[in-house]
Amino acid sequence: MDYHRGAGVEVRIARIFNTYGPRMCIDDGRVVSYFVAQVEGLMRLMEGEHVGPFNLGNPGEFTMLEFAEVVQETIDPNAKIEFRPNTEDDPHKRTPDISRAKSYLAWNRRSLSERVSL
């Protein structure tokens, strides 16, 4: 933001919260956002005129186990859920405030069941 103010250069700042993917632990308790919704938020940010940080993520928290169970039920109820240890630097809880993204970008997260069924 200082560079934007000092040099007059257009900037966009996105704080991306917990998109899911490989090596995520089942029971870590963090919020999870669907990748496509993240990209949609990033595109709205980049194409828009608003400067400043925007949090893009899901403010509704659920555990990775809850997420895995929804995926399991949606894809294969007989699938085995694997448990792996968290990495040392893995935060246990993180919940973003997405009110700026809602107001300025008209962006909102999708529900877990919407994301899994896509």
UniProtKB/TrEMBL annotation:
InterPro entries: NAD(P)-bd_dom_sf (IPR036291), UXS-like (IPR044516). One of its GO terms (molecular function) is NAD+ binding. The keyword Repressor does not apply. Keywords: Decarboxylase, Lyase, NAD. One of its GO terms (cellular component) is cytoplasm. Its cofactor is NAD(+). GO terms for biological process: D-xylose metabolic process. This is UDP-glucuronic acid decarboxylase 1. It comes from Hibiscus syriacus.
